[in-house]
Write a structure and sequence with these properties.
Largest sheet: 9 strands, mixed
Number of strands: 17
Radius of gyration: 27 Å
Distance between the termini: 84 Å
CATH class: Alpha Beta
Oligomer: single chain
Length: 482
């Protein structure tokens, strides 16, 4: 007898009702799964954008290496008074520092190198290191109570930009690209430029993870613009390849990719198609962007003499403004050289010379063009510097400060933040936050809020979990909102 027929004939009563129950249960289960199905990506994005945005665009002037808040913005008269004395043990209990602090000269307190003055109607304290920033103090919102959990550069930068210390998560620009989309199909939504002060001994490595899209589709990744004749690698056609031939080739590749996508459904294939098309359009848009010959002398003077040198922070600040005008949503300028372990009295002057005027000039340029109201400008590093000396107190040319995550300063301008205010305080020697602490996740939540995004609702499902930029933390810092 046929074994299948035999099995059917021998089915007993228990097996019959068991199979019948399963059959009836499948439609019921399908109905339950459908009615409780997770929200689609479009639904998630729509739900996240339920806040009236104050800003449309962001320029993040990220200062790799950690500027010293105690030299630049956070005046502490007690440091001057106690210069050379050992840090009280009560400040050090339970604190973690980099291994380089072991070389500190008995952790003696160090007075600021340059004097501070109050500036503008707001009375903001800015040191002599930053004369141009001092002139725009009434445009800025200083946050002097930032704190983080990381004590070394790469983890701290990853944490600031992606909400996680390891290089595996989407960064700020990628989240904004995912959440808000593009404003110009001829330019990337997220652009990165890097620079470093000449002849510095404390430059930082620019890791690709600082503009990574992580587990988001790769078309949300930052596009790095380089200095020189070819700002984007592999963008130009090879010799002998005309635009028409390039167009024909791309159409053929797109057709093959569409066929492959129809067969396997891999979303990265659609990303590849989009990136080929973007590269084709950028062959025209990027050279026009990089040509600053049409800028007026008065505009160029705002950014300082280095604006004429490709690859400098000043030139990148000008290009950032030009990108915003053309519809790029998020520009991340990363400038290295702030890691003054033994060069506060030497290289810090060069670092401020290269970044102070361009940063202030950018804010002024945006304001006079009517762009500052809906553009958020952020200036700051990954942590601060210690109130105590790293080095020999009797060797002034080699004074330095170590990494300090427990209190530091950033500033923001435009884009819905209150101008001419200072939020938060560090203690009497700039060691710990004394008032209104702002954690990295709070900063990220506030940034998203200013752009009209609820940080708790902007999520992406990966490996069975809904991730967000702020992880499971973060509160909007409402007192700084205009």
């Amino acid at each position: 007898m046929n074994p299948l027929l035999e099995s059917q004939l021998l089915t007993n009563r228990r097996h019959f009702f068991g199979k019948a129950a399963t059959g009836l249960g499948i439609p019921a289960l399908a109905h339950l799964l459908t009615s409780n199905a997770p929200a689609s990506e479009d639904q998630i994005l729509e739900a996240a954008k339920d806040i009236a945005p104050k800003a449309k665009r962001v320029i993040y002037l990220f200062q790799n290496g950690a500027p010293s808040h105690l030299e630049l913005f956070d005046e502490k008269p007690k440091l001057t008074k106690l210069h050379g004395e050992k840090v009280p043990d009560s400040y050090m209990e339970g604190k973690r520092f980099s291994t380089m602090s072991a070389a500190a000269d008995k952790r003696r307190l160090l007075a600021p190198v340059e004097p501070f003055q109050k500036h503008g109607e707001s009375g903001a304290t800015v040191s002599a290191f930053m004369p141009y920033t001092a002139k725009i103090a009434d445009e800025l919102c200083f946050i002097k109570s930032m704190h983080t959990e990381q004590v070394n550069h790469a983890p701290a930068i990853n944490f600031f930009l992606s909400g996680f210390q390891l290089p595996s998560r989407p960064t700020l620009g990628s989240w904004l690209s995912y959440g808000l989309g593009s404003m110009n199909e001829n330019l990337p939504t997220f652009v990165v430029m890097t620079s470093v002060t000449k002849d510095t001994s404390c430059g930082q490595i620019f890791y690709d993870s600082y503009w990574s899209s992580g587990f988001l589709p790769s078309h949300h990744q930052g596009v790095k613009l380089r200095a020189g004749a070819s700002p984007v690698l592999y963008l130009n056609n090879p010799k002998g390849v005309s635009p028409a031939l390039r167009r024909q080739m791309l159409d053929g590749i797109a057709s093959l990719n569409e066929s492959k996508y129809a067969a396997v459904g891999d979303p990265e294939i659609q990303t590849r198609i989009a990136q080929y098309e973007m590269a084709y359009r950028m062959q025209t848009s990027v050279p026009e962007l990089a040509d600053i010959s049409g800028e007026s002398k008065s505009t160029l003077d705002l950014y300082g003499p280095q604006v004429h040198e490709p690859g400098t922070f000043a030139r990148n600040c000008l290009l950032a403004r030009r990108l915003l005008e053309r519809g790029t949503r998020y520009v991340q300028l990363m400038h290295a050289g702030w890691d003054q372990h033994n060069s506060l009295t030497t290289e810090l002057y060069n670092q401020c010379r290269d970044t102070d005027q361009p940063s202030a000039g950018l804010v002024q340029d945006l304001k006079q063009r009517g762009l500052l109201d809906d553009t958020l400008v952020i200036w700051g590093g990954e942590f601060g510097r210690t109130p105590f000396l790293q080095g020999d107190i009797n060797n002034r040319p080699r004074w330095g400060r170590d990494h300090h995550p427990y209190a530091f300063t950033i500033w923001m301008a435009g884009g819905g933040v209150k101008p001419g205010m200072t939020y938060g305080e560090s203690d009497d020697i700039g060691f710990n936050v004394a008032k209104d602490p702002v954690h990295i996740h709070d900063f990220q939540a506030t940034l998203l809020h200013l752009l009209g995004i609820d940080h708790e609702k902007l999520t992406y499902k990966f490996q069975g979990r809904h991730y967000r930029l702020t992880d499971v933390h973060g509160h909007v810092v409402r007192p700084i909102l205009a």
